[in-house]
Design goal:
Layout: H1 4-9, E1 16-18, H2 23-35, E2 40-42, H3 79-95, H4 99-108
Parallel strand pairs: 1-2
Length: 153
């Protein structure tokens, strides 16, 4: 899923960006979005995502919701896809004791690289094979744009 829209829209002052992580959160926040005095950009997903909240969940439009707790690390995520990955990462991190590695990295006072592995095939379908080929023009009014005719004229 592309995130360019978020980057562009973040430059608009006082615009609220909201990306629900599941259907329960969307249904809970809709009355708040309607009543909000400013502009709200509601970002939705095309793929069906697993439920994170139950039906009784009450979302707060302008506040973050902690979904799990821990002591070593804080994971921030927005939207169903990334919230799902963050919850999976939290489960994996709960099994391992990563506190000593973080303490060592903080005490070393040097740049530390944390490596995260994400299965990209789960984020979006793969590119079509013809996606990087030049387009074919079928309408006569666009013939002047056809790159195959450029050298012929």
């Amino acid at each position: 899923m592309a995130i360019e829209d978020l980057g562009v829209l973040r430059s608009i002052p006082e615009l609220v960006l909201f990306e629900p992580c599941d259907e329960a959160e969307l249904l809970s926040v809709m009355p708040q979005i309607i009543e909000h005095p400013g502009t709200v950009y509601l970002r939705l997903h095309r793929k069906e995502l697993p439920a994170v909240h139950d039906e009784a969940y009450q979302c707060r439009l302008l506040q973050a919701d902690p979904l799990s707790s821990g002591t070593d690390v804080t994971l921030l995520a927005s939207g169903g896809v990334m919230v799902g990955y963050a919850l999976q990462a939290a489960e994996l991190l709960a099994v391992e004791d990563i506190a000593p590695a973080f303490q060592e990295a903080l005490q070393s006072k040097v740049t530390t690289i944390l490596e995260f592995v994400v299965d990209g095939t789960q984020l979006a379908p793969p590119f079509r094979r013809d996606a990087f080929q030049m387009p074919t023009r079928y309408l006569d009014k666009y013939a002047h744009l056809d790159y195959s005719r450029w050298m012929q004229d």
